[in-house]
Amino acid sequence: MTSEIVKRYSAPVPRYTSYPTAPHFSDAVGHKEYAAWLTALTERARLSLYLHIPFCDAMCWYCGCSTKAVRRYEPVANYLQTLMAEIAGVSSRVPRTHRVTHIHWGGGSPNVLSSKHISDLAEGMRTHFNVGDDAEFAIEVDPRGLSGDRIAAFAQASVTRVSIGVQDFDPKVQAAINRLQSFETTKRVVEMFREQGIAAINIDLVYGLPHQTRDSVTRTIKQVLALEPNRIATFGYAHLPSRLKHQRVIDQSTLPDVVERFAQSNRLVDMLAAAGYVRIGLDHFARADDPLSTGPVRRNFQGYTSDAADALIGLGASAIGRLPEGYAQNSVPVADYERRINEHGLATARGVALTPDDRMRAFVIERLMCDLLLPATELRRRYGQSAALILEEAAALIEADQDRLVERDGDGFRITPRGRPFVRTIAACFDTYLGAEQARHSLGV
Questions:
Q1: Could you count the other beta carbons within 10 Å of the beta carbon of residue 252?
Q2: Is this model's pTM higher than 0.70 or not?
Q3: Which CATH number covers residue 376?
Q4: Of 265, 285, 315, the domain-final residue
Q5: What is the pLDDT at residue 444?
Q6: Torsion angle of alpha carbons 50, 55, 58, 60, nearest 10°?
Q7: In this structure, are 283 and 361 located in the same domain?
Q8: What is the CATH number of the domain that holds 265?
Q9: What band does 242 get if pLDDT is binned at 50, 70 and 90?
Q10: If 0-12 CB within 10 Å is exposed, 13-18 middle and 19+ buried, where does residue 194 land?
C-alpha cells in the first residue's frame, strides 16, 4: 500500500466506542434524566457494570485516561466511600430482577486499592446488585509494584479476566513515556494471577509511541507471545497535548510519522496472525477458543467485548453508562463527582438522548467496527424505510471508492482487507455529528 493512501486516510477521527461520541454529550442529560432511564429498564434486563478508579501511583505521559497520580492513600479511601454511596444510590433504582452478567473495573489502576478495599468494593457491588454466578469480572492492572496480597484479593473477589498494560518493553520508549516496566516484572505478575486461578490474561500494547520503531515493536511482541495471553490489544497512541497537559512532556519530534505508525501496526498484525491469533475488528486479537473469537462481538468504552448486556451502568468519576434511552456520563473531577453523589445519590453531569437516526447510525458504525460489514438486510429489518437513507449513503461511498477499500455485498458493502486499517475513517462517513465540534481525535491509523 502506498504512503499516499496511508496519508490520505490518516486524518483524525473518533475511535467509535460510542455513537454519538462523547464530545457531543451535553448537560441536557443530568441526574433526573438518568434516574428516569434506570427505572425504565425492562423487566429482567441484563446489566453490565463499569467501575472507574481514577488514581495511579505515577502518571504515564502517554496516558489518555481520566486519572491522576496520588502519593497518599487518603484520597483513594475517601473516593471509595463515595463510590460505595453511588453503588447504593444506583442500585436502589434497579430491581433485583435485573441480573449483572459482566463487570469491568478500569481506571487509572484498580490495583491502587488496598487488598481490603478490593474485597470491600467487590462485596458491596454484589450486595447491591444481583451478580450472576457466571458473570465475567474483568479488571485492568498496572503490574509495577502489584503485590501478592492484592492479586489474592482479586482472586477471592471472583475476578475472571485481567488486562495488563505493557505498551512497549523497549527501555528507551519506556523512559520517554515515564513507564519503566521490565519483562520480568510483567511475567511475574502474569504467573501470580494464573497461580491464583485467573487464567484469562489480556495484554495491552501501544504503537506510535516516542522512539518506537518496527524493530522495537517486533522485540516487544515476541516477549508478549512468550506470556501466552488469551487476548492482545494494539492501540495507536493518541497524541493530544492541547487536551492532555502531561503529554506536553513528550518531545513531538520523537514520534513516528503516520507511515511509520502504519508500518508498526502492520508488523503487529502480521506477527499475531502468524502466531495463530484471530483478528477482531480493528485492533484486538484473541486465541481461536476465546469468546471474543467464537461469539458475537460488541464495541463499547472498553473496546471490543463479548459483553451482550442490555444496559451498561457506569460508576465512578467520569464513568459513562449506556441505557436504551441514551448515554449518561458522571462528572469528571473527583471533587465534583463526590459533591453530586452527596447531593443526589447520582453524579450524572452530561449525556445524550438518542434519536431514531442516532440508533440506526450507531448500529451501522458498530457493525462496521466489529464485523467490517454494512448488513443491508438486517438494517432494513430493524429500521424499515428509514434504512433507505443509510443505503443511499453506502451506495455513494462505494461509487466514490477509488482505492478498493470496500466491495459490494448485496446492496450493502463489506470492507476489504485493504480497507481494514481504515475502518474508523470508513465508519466516519456515516457520522452526521463529525465536524460539528471542536474536539480533537486520534490519527485514523
A1: 10
A2: yes
A3: 1.10.10.920
A4: 315
A5: 65
A6: 40
A7: no
A8: 3.80.30.20
A9: confident
A10: middle
Cβ atoms < 10 Å from Cβ of 97: 11
Tens of pLDDT, residue by residue over 84-135, are: 999 999 999 998 889 999 999 999 999 999 999 999 999 999 999 999 999 9
pLDDT at 18 over 60: yes
398-407 pLDDT, tens per residue? 999 999 999 9
Q: How far apart (Å, rounded) are the C-alpha atoms in residues 121 and 63?
A: 25
What is the per-residue DSSP string for 105-147?
A: EEES-GGGS-HHHHHHHHHHHHHHSEEEEEEEEEEEE--TT--
Residues 48 and 176 placed together within one structural domain of the fold: yes
**Location of C-alpha cell 479476566:** 161
Chain centre to alpha carbon of residue 217: 22
Q: How far apart are CA 277 and CA 286, in angstroms?
A: 5
Which letter does DSSP use for residue 26 in this model? Answer: B
Question: Which residue has 431514531 as its cell numbers?
Answer: 356
Residues 311 and 360 in one domain: no
C-alpha closest to that of 119 among 84, 94, 95: 84
Cα torsion angle, 14, 19, 20, 21, sign: negative
Could you read off the pLDDT of 319-364 as tens digits, one per residue?
A: 999 999 999 999 999 999 999 999 999 999 999 999 999 999 999 9
Distance CA 347, CA 181 (A): 35
Radius of gyration of the chain (CA): 21
365 — pLDDT class (breaks 50, 70, 90): very high
Our count of domains for the chain comes to: 2
d(CA 58, CA 108): 10
Runs of H (alpha helix) within 202-257: 214-226
* Alpha carbon 152 to its chain's center: 25
Burial of 151-189, coded b for 16+ CB within 10 Å and e otherwise, reads bbbbbebebbbbbbbbbbbbeebbebbebebeeeebeeb
- Angle (CA) 357-363-366 rounded to 5° is 135
The residue behind cell 457494570 is 49
Residue 382: domain span: 356-434
